[in-house]
Amino acid sequence: MAQNASMEEFEALLNESLEIDTPNEGSVVKGKVIAIEAGQAIIDVGYKMEGRVDLKEFASPGEAPEIAVGDEVEVYLDRVENARGEAVISRDKARREEAWDRLEKAYADEQRVEGAIFGRVKGGFTVDLGGAVAFLPGSQVDVRPVRDAGPLMGLKQPFQILKMDRRRGNIVVSRRAILEESRAEQRAEVIAALHEGQTVEGVVKNITEYGAFVDLGGVDGLLHVTDMAWRRVNHPSEILSIGETVKVQVIKINKETHRISLGMKQLQADPWDSVQANYPLGSVHKGRVTNITDYGAFVELEPGVEGLVHVSEMSWTKKNVHPGKIVSTSQEVDVMVLEIDPAKRRVSLGLKQTMRNPWEVFAETHPVGTEIEGEVKNITEFGLFVGLDNDIDGMVHLSDLSWEQRGEEAIQNYRKGDMVKAVVTEVDTDKERISLSIKALGDDAFSDAVDGVKRGSIITVTVTAIEDGGIEVEYNGMKSFIRRSDLSRDRSEQRPERFQVGDHVDVRVTNVDAKTRRLGLSIKAREIAEEKEAVEQYGSSDSGASLGDILGAALKGDKG
């Protein structure tokens, strides 16, 4: 009985001892490396328990394991005993538990943590934070996109924890936040040492269409394309290259945004200071066409000094033509200085002024009366335009086409492209007009025919046709028409049929119209004039003599 009691007591004491001293599964315990074999470390965790851990669990990513017999290590106890009677332990889980405790404290205190990038995953990278694995998004690797993350792999460096959830095992970190913080401190130091107007050296870091970013030693400044040179710069790459060291002037510093504006041209003499002295009004200079627009062309007189040749000052003759049809980019041209506005930094130039006015040249070489030949360039309702020397045109008005035909009829005889001869009748250089006459090439039959004939003259005409409204007559080859009412002063005698073709009739000239090329003739007017003359010579109506007596006497006088 006594022996049985002592055995039960011993068993109770043993169980109590095991319950007190055996660690709980799922906890971190201390152990000692007692042997290393077959790629594993055998660790005595006390309580007469031993377990095995792969050596790789003692190595940081990319490094060799650091473990030796006799080392004391902390391991995670998964199970007190497995099928082989060994404790199931893990160094990784111990490190993870330890790391999570440490990281949660760092996250709460907003402190940086050290880690190493060891793998690439979709959207970013994996980072070992001393036992806990975190996710590093691609956008959080650097302040600028990183094309090759190779040099960063395995490198121990600081990270900022952005988010962590122990229950889900998620940690998100940022390397960029560390760089930006460091960069901000560095920028603040550099900016504090700079002042506007200061000349500094920097390295061209990046080139864009609108300028270049220059590294001033931890802070970037923008060198705008318009501040690179006094001359026109189409693209910054014309004068700068990435990596080049340049001397610049600090133009402006924005203390709030930390933006710095830089300039290169400010370190050079402003060519506009001597523009008025170098380019007096009316002087002619050689220049290079730098830009062409709808309203004109820009011409560089020297680096930094450009002038505009307005489209109206480009050609004497080419009106309403795009400037690109007259000059081309990079072409060297002679220009005249027309106006200078130093305040607005504008120079007005003229291209046509370097060439003589073609209308003045034409007036000198083709005085009035000169015969010319040219091509019909255009036909309008009021005349022909004929091409002349130096791309100028002369106009033949309808009234100057023919002596015989009306202008509307005569113009039908011409077609665009016809070669015609004409006589210069007027040159107006101010209005840029040249008047020509084709009919002046030939004799004026009308003028020859009526030479010496004037209003009131008595001439003899030949009847060429009898019509109801009057008779057609001819004088020196010129046809005229006498209306029925002008055939006689006596109404009973105003009969066309009393005349015959071939009759010679004396008539009085009532009008000489050179424009319509017509003679106004009247038998009635001749008879009235003869009556008036007879009255004046042979008597007066007041003397009592009858008209028959006076005319009879006049007729006798004619016979005598």
TrEMBL record:
Family statement: Belongs to the bacterial ribosomal protein bS1 family.
Official protein name in the record: 30S ribosomal protein S1
GO cellular component, as recorded: ribosome
Gene: rpsA
NCBIfam families xref list: PRK06299.1-2, PRK06299.1-5, rpsA
Function in brief: Binds mRNA; thus facilitating recognition of the initiation point. It is needed to translate mRNA with a short Shine-Dalgarno (SD) purine-rich sequence.
Tree of life domain: Bacteria
Keywords: Repeat, Ribonucleoprotein, Ribosomal protein, RNA-binding
InterPro entries according to UniProt: NA-bd_OB-fold, Ribos_protein_bS1-like, Ribosomal_bS1, Ribosomal_protein_S1-like, S1_domain
Domain S1 motif, residue spans: 26-92, 110-176, 197-265, 282-352, 369-439, 456-524
Pfam families recorded: S1
PANTHER family: 30S RIBOSOMAL PROTEIN S1 (PTHR10724), SMALL RIBOSOMAL SUBUNIT PROTEIN BS1C (PTHR10724:SF7)
Keyword presence, Cell cycle: no
